[in-house]
Amino acid sequence: xxxxxxxxxxxxxxxxxxxxxxxxxVIKPKNLKETLxxxxxxxxxxxxxxxxxxxxxLISSGLGLLVPYFIGKAIDTMYLGKMxxxxxxxxxxxxxxxxxxxxxxxxxxxxxxxxxxISQRIVFNLRETLFAKLQNLPISFFDVHTxxxxxxxxxxxxxxxxxxxxxxxxxxxxxxINILGSFIMMLILSxxxxxxxxxxxxxxxxxxxxxxxxxxxxxxxxxxxxGNLNGHIEESISGIQVVKAFNNEDKVIEKFHDIxxxxxxxxxxxxIWSGYIMPLMNVINNIGFGVVAxxxxxxxxxxxxxxxxxxxFLSYSRQFxxxxxxxxxxxxxxxxxxxxxxxxxxxxxxxEEIEDLKDARELENVKGEVVFNKVTFxxxxxxxxxxxxxxxxxxxxxxxxxxxxxxxxxxxxNLLTRFYEITEGEILIDGKDIREYSRDSLRKxxxxxxxxxxxxxxxxxxxxxxxxxEASDEEIERAATMARADEFIKKMPKxxxxxxxxxxxxxxxxxxxxxxxxxAILANPSILILDEATSSVDTRTEFKIQxxxxxLMKNRTTFIIAHRLSTIKDADIIMVIDGGxxxxxxxxxxxxxxxxxxxxxxKSQFMNVIIEN
Length: 613
Ligand SMILES: Nc1ncnc2c1ncn2[C@@H]1O[C@H](COP(=O)(O)OP(=O)(O)OP(=O)(O)O)[C@@H](O)[C@H]1O
Fold this sequence. Notes:
Layout: H1 19-22, H2 32-43, H3 47-78, H4 87-136, H5 139-144, H6 147-189, H7 191-198, H8 201-238, H9 240-245, H10 249-301, H11 307-348, E1 370-377, E2 386-393, E3 398-402, H12 409-416, E4 424-429, E5 432-433, H13 439-444, E6 446-449, E7 458-459, H14 460-465, H15 473-482, H16 486-491, E8 499-500, H17 509-523, E9 527-531, H18 539-553, E10 557-561, H19 565-570, E11 573-578, E12 581-586, H20 588-594, H21 597-612
Parallel strand pairs: 3-10, 3-11, 6-9, 9-10
Antiparallel strand pairs: 1-2, 1-4, 4-5, 7-8, 11-12
């Protein structure tokens, strides 16, 4: 009977160089001990089942170790020296062997069954912890990690961990038991033959080390090219509109071809080198086999051992060398699984949004007075974007933030909602420092209508309900009617129950904005943040949006990152931001008389509009 095989049967050789996993180089974990410890903490709740699996492996490996012994016995029993056959003895041995084989299959089935549950539960927990962690990370984390990278940790890396747990744990235990058991059986059968069969081990080690050295370099290169290829695919798909608009399809294809050719070339080399391992290994193993057979033959002629013992011994020596080869392979699977676990733990170790203070209170019944007091902030603390900004907005008034692109307008509202934490100064709402209140209660005060409205896949109704989850259908329809969104919603095939495509992309930008306004009306926040869209919608829709916005802004403190002339002119205060500072503030008329920064900005941006009108 062969020792247990791992699930990745196609994978062979020292570097795990074949089969589906083989195209990946082995990425080693950086801190093996710590990663193992942490991973073990996920295994802990499965300790009992793991012990049962261990017992099952012990039994099935033990049974497996009996087989060569009985085969040897069968040979010796069958051969009675006078060409007569001992059918009775043979029958008993065949019976025993059949029972052993059936038992072994049953044990293997049970092991796989239990291990499947263990690995899926562990990976389930890991996935849940990771996803929950992502929800609690600050926005700044997502500024520096691409979506692709985060996705790959949630999918590829977790998959690697799962494969390692489900396949390698059993493989590791069964290989270890088989190697040890076979070795003991070999020693019991014949010490001389055992020593002879060990002769090839240094040869195997030397050969695999040399080949592995070469393949490692090639696989690393292959992985890096694969990364480029994925990057190129990701970019060309997300930028498909730009690619088509500029007729760059051929260039994109050409670049893909270049990278793909490189990948193919390195892939071939890597596969060829890794392909050497198995045949070489077989040659060496067969040399060992030959040595044992010849030596065994000599010993048998001298009547020092029986033919049956030689047959048993040869089986054991196969059972000894096979898991040895497989262990090298499993070792690689384990390494990439641990590296995957490490990458998952890296995210789990990321600093979460700064915890609310222990005695953080709930911000309630907000009137909406907002004060920035000498606020300084930089996405990178060494390079402040806003410096000592101070201003006060009365409750219920609206303030238009204007200024050149990159001036820091969005940054101001990002600080207000505590998406980022200020470096210096304080922000007060109704005279209360926002850091002393829980983030949840703070964010409840805000409603946002952003330039790019994000709609989730789901129905129109569900998307509006996002503003206030407990809202009834009537409330949703009332909000949509106020926002004048119901006009287009009712024209949709299933009205409020129409399912929106991914990101709401089957709606026009104007329609998406009206939905966002409906959401905000439903949420009924004390403070509103409006980031006006720069792209123009048709005049009728623009009028509707404008009307809905005015309704929404009524009696609410409103921060508008303003782009439309009408919004700016109607604002209670206009604040001109430039280079991280407030360079001017006041009403439209006041600032026009001043003939300062606002006047210049107004002239440069809106004069055409005024002339056209
Ligand atoms: N997440 C971020 N990480 C690092 N730097 C950022 C980040 N967001 C913005 N910045 C930088 O901060 C500065 C201010 O950006 P901000 O988005 O506040 O400008 P803005 O006035 O809103 O511009 P626009 O009118 O173009 O939207 C810019 O120089 C920008 O490059």
